[in-house]
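Section 5.1 Outputs to date
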Amino acid sequence: MVIKITVNGSPQDAPQGLRLPALLELIGIDSARVAIELNRRIVRKSDWPSTTIQDGDSIEVVTFVGGG
């Protein structure tokens, strides 16, 4: 079954039961330097494997960049 979600402001289809690490793989983002906000709440990285995305969820993935 396919669910409808929003990732960084863009509507997307995703498989039901998708968890946050698999979402990052699906959208091609390396998990090493990112933060995830799910429905306006920051999700701790330790909780990513147990966090299942639901139909209608809004996800923001923020990538950290360094520089000087």
